[in-house]
Amino acid sequence: MAEATILVTGASGFVGPHVVAALAGAGWRPRLALRRPVPVPAGVETVLTGDLAGPIDWSAALQGVDHVVHMAGLAHAGPGLDEALYRRINTEATLELARAAAAAGIRRFVHLSSIKALSGAFDGPPLSEEAPPAPADPYGRSKLAAEQGLAGLDLDWVNLRPVLVYGPGVKANMAALLRLARLPLPLPFGGLQAPRSLLAVENLADAIRFALSPACPARQSYVVSDPEPISVAGLLTALRAGLGRGPGLLPVPEGWLGLAARLAGREETFRKLAGSLVARPERLLRAGWRPPAETRAALARLAASARAG
């Protein structure tokens, strides 16, 4: 493991710096595949490869590499994007890199997939890793197609399916909740107690480190999440604790909030917020993975870092 070189794609995004730091801290040498020059930590090797939307010659980037961590892709951007673009970037480009890795004798290929490859639900019973995948949108289908393509290659691959990731620099829905938590007002969300799985970015980085180790069985797909789900009320309480404040949550019944959301034309947004979506990392835990961050403490650190910034 020590001194092995790992080609990392997608390292310039929100998750990337945490992954690079975790790999370097474990004694590996990350080599970052970049579309264009960007600032990187001192001493980290880079190679320019171009955009995944077009063909890439991976031979130089893979020279002397032991493992690949493939995080680059087209993010889940909602409706409006052509499904062919998702397939090109998330499926075809992934498999082109994987085939080049197989030809180069790469020892392990870790693919950052998504929980959306397993299910498109945002409310319902807990998801099972044993259930047949049922993606519901172009993003999820493109990720599942990449997983299925990897299964046909002579390569030690690992698919990681993270749930919603949070941490410093997070955007979208979690950033909106953080803005709510920072408001100096009581919030009417004390009644939102449905459990939801989240994933601390440091836990994702550690799961990637673990997926590269011999302890993690290859040629399997794994849900990645914090082991214990948390409710919206619990999430906001943890964020406000990081801000040095009490919860300040009013126990307004969920039905009343749902009615207000319907009247405002925001019913689907409210369902995503209030629904229960639990996906536990059972396979990773059975393999021996022990996530380093506890959810409430990690959420409090997120809020504290946002306040400091």
Automatic annotation (TrEMBL):
Segments traversing the membrane: none
Coiled-coil positions: none
Pfam families per the UniProt record, alphabetical: Epimerase
Superkingdom, taxonomy of origin: Bacteria
Ranges of residues in domain NAD-dependent epimerase/dehydratase: 6-214
PANTHER family for the chain: BIFUNCTIONAL POLYMYXIN RESISTANCE PROTEIN ARNA, BLL5923 PROTEIN
Name used for this protein in its record: NAD-dependent epimerase/dehydratase family protein
Protein's organism: Bosea minatitlanensis
Origin organism lineage: Bacteria, Pseudomonadati, Pseudomonadota, Alphaproteobacteria, Hyphomicrobiales
